[in-house]
Amino acid sequence: MLKIYNTLSRKLEEFISLESRKVGMYTCGPTVYGYTHIGHLRKYTSDDILVRVLVAYGYEVKHVMNITDVGHLTSDEDQGDDKLEKGAKERNESVWEVAKYFTDYFIKSTLALNIYPPDNLVKATDHIKEQIKLIQILEKKGFIYQTEQAIYFDVSKFPNYGKLTGQKLEEKTVGVRQDVRVDPKKKNPADFALWFFTVGHFKDHVMRWNSPWGEGFPGWHIECSAMSMEYLGNTLDIHTGGIDHIPVHHTNEIAQSEAATGEQFVRYWVHHNFLRIDQVKMSKSLKNLYTIDDIRAKGFDPLALRYLFLTAHYREELNFSWDSLQAGQTALNNLREIVRDWNSNVSEESKVSKDVSEKFLNALGEDLNTSKALAVVWEMVKSDFASGEKAATILEMDKVLGLGLSDYVGKKIEIPAEVQKLLNQREKAREEKDFEKSDELRKEIKKMGYEIEDFVNGVKVKIIS
Ligand code: AMP
Ligand code: ZN
Fold first, then answer.
1. Does 40 contact ligand 1 (Cβ within 6 A)?
2. Domain identity same for 400 and 422
3. 410 in the Ramachandran plot: left (φ > 0), alpha (ψ -120 to 50) or beta?
4. 45-54, 132-141, 331-340, range with the lowest pLDDT
5. Contact (CB, 8 A) for 39 and 142
6. What gap in Å lies between CA 276 and CA 222, rounded to an integer?
7. Whether residue 184 sits in one domain with residue 225
8. Distance between CA 138 and CA 4 in Å, rounded?
9. When you count CB atoms within 10 A of the terminal residue's CB, does the N or C end of the chain come out lower?
10. Which residues does 210 contact at the CB level (< 8 Å), separation at least 6?
């Protein structure tokens, strides 16, 4: 049985899809104004595990993710500056160039962690029409009002506005910051913008479109409702996001979607907790935002980061440190070396250990308990099963873990004596910090058909295919 914690009910629930064996899942994607960092990657790895677990449980998953390229404001509450325009100024590029550059960086980063691309990766700027259409429905149903600055959703018209947080509307308004520029014509501080007009503070806003109400650009929340329902229908099985999205973004998504359709918007809300660094929150000012390139530059394999993420539960905070990443790299290296010795002739399904697979899936069925699933892996690794059975079983489990073990299972490397001699010389050169010589030797080894990758705990040798 697959159980998932649902933020909406605040309970662990058995997962039952709306349509038999099919799942529609929507994930809030990145705002593409800055580099994807490893905190983001923890979140997208958790989404990826969820997709893979659903598949392992026999579901066909349609996964949709948005790219926020319209640029939303530096505060979730309709205040502050446009993040994309800020990024464009910093980089001296157009907003379109910035969005493209960071979207590509995001995709590259997720691929490095073996995160499956979503079935539909959809850009807000490509779906302005759908967003306008949704606002028109809300207009017809009497949920909106207009000021000189924007069109707002009137939260007082939507019963049970705070159902995702369990907060009452009166409590929520207290939490909204009053110190930043606000529209004095807003009726309730919790009302949120569906459409901003290019006037006042936004008069020079670069991204702008025509609408039935006047030129402007959509608010942030409306894109997720419009695009998720466009691709998945009025009711989604699963919607994911970081815990920071619960009080504003997802609360608003529910309000506008359900107000428009009169149907339940999402059946299971899944929220991921944060990655911290050395016990503090990551931030640009502390310069502790690491990207996948920083991980590589320190000699780590991006999949060591994936391994590290799997050691913690997605609803718990995880603290990143270089030591913890090193521990992940060591465990992954050990696993890779062990599976190399196993029998690679593993194509027959019958060889998969049903007991181990079941135990593994049961662990993941407990609200995606990946650390327990990893314990099942190590228990099997140390067991005395036949090596062919172990190989088949670990490959089956790796469909969920995504550690790329198929590159290692049964792939013993027989290094010819003359290559080994050069490898030893290179190791010695590295120990003596003679990097010039070490580089020369690498080139020589490459000429003989072997690629070397250096890691913190040693070298990996691959045959150039
Ligand atoms: P951003 O593009 O910076 O608004 O971030 C997009 C989403 O990534 C956030 O809303 C969070 O859900 C998630 N996120 C940001 N920082 C972290 C972090 N340190 N750990 C986990 N998730 C994060
Ligand atoms: Zn969203």
1. yes
2. no
3. left
4. 331-340
5. no
6. 29
7. yes
8. 32
9. C
10. none
Q: How far is CA 100 from CA 31, 95, 134, 234, in A?
A: 11, 9, 26, 30
Question: Quick check: 89 and 185 in contact, CB under 8 A?
Answer: no
Range of the domain at 285: 276-408
Task: Return the higher-pLDDT residue of 170 and 379.
Answer: 379
What DSSP line would sit under 171-210, residue for residue? HHHHHS--SS---TT-SSTT-EEEEEESSGGGTT-SS-B-
313 touches ligand 1 (CB under 6 Å): no
CA angle, 420 as apex, 416 and 424 as ends, to 5°?
A: 175
Please, what is the Cα angle at 132 between 126 and 135, to 5 degrees?
Answer: 140
| Alpha carbons 13 and 19: distance in angstroms, whole number | 17
Q: DSSP character for 31?
A: B
pLDDT of residue 350: 52
Question: Is residue 72 predicted with pLDDT exceeding 90?
Answer: no
Percent of the chain whose predicted confidence (pLDDT) is above 70: 92
* Mean pLDDT, all residues of the chain: 90
Who contacts 354 (Cβ-Cβ below 8 Å, separation ≥6)? Answer: none
SS3 state of residue 15: coil
* Domain count across the chain: 3
* CB of residue 31 inside a 6 A radius of ligand 1: yes
Give CA–CA dist 199/203, Å, rounded: 4
Q: Which atom of ligand 1 is nearest to the CA of 249?
A: 10
Q: At which of 272, 298, 318 does a domain end?
A: 272
Determine whether the shortest distance from the Cβ of 67 to ligand 1 is under 6 A.
no
Ligand 2 (ion): which residues have CB within 5 A? 28, 224
Place of tokens 């059975």: 389
pTM reported for the whole predicted model: 0.88
Q: Are residues 358 and 429 in the same domain?
A: no
Identity at 459, one-letter amino acid code: V
In degrees, rounded to 5, the angle at the alpha carbon of residue 111 between the alpha carbons of residues 445 and 324 is 80
Tell me if 39 CB under 6 Å of ligand 1.
yes
The arithmetic mean of pLDDT across residues 121-143, rounded, is: 98
